[in-house]
Amino acid sequence: MAQQLALSVDFGPGFTQAWSKIAKVIPQFIAFLVILAIGWIVAKAIAGVLDRVLRRLGSERVAERAGMARYLSGSKYDMTGIICKIVYYTIRPCSRTSQQIAVSRVTA
Fold it and tell me: What is the spatial distance between Cα 92 and Cα 105, in angstroms, rounded to a whole number?
């Protein structure tokens, strides 16, 4: 006659470890979202200020003299808009780098 083995599995420690890992990730995720929002706001603000400054300095007249306005006549962007977009998309990766640094400090 074969002997039956009684198997008992204790899931308690596994659930405890899972919840502790989730509790550790939530502050990191919140810090990530906050830094992402701040980086987005800062990039938008800098691009907006740059747009106003360049327009006051007469960048569109410079573009017309250089012949760029003719090339951009069918586009929805003008020379100032293109410069501001380049600055905006240059600043955004910098905010992602600061996110990685901040999240690594939160985890440490």
Answer: 20
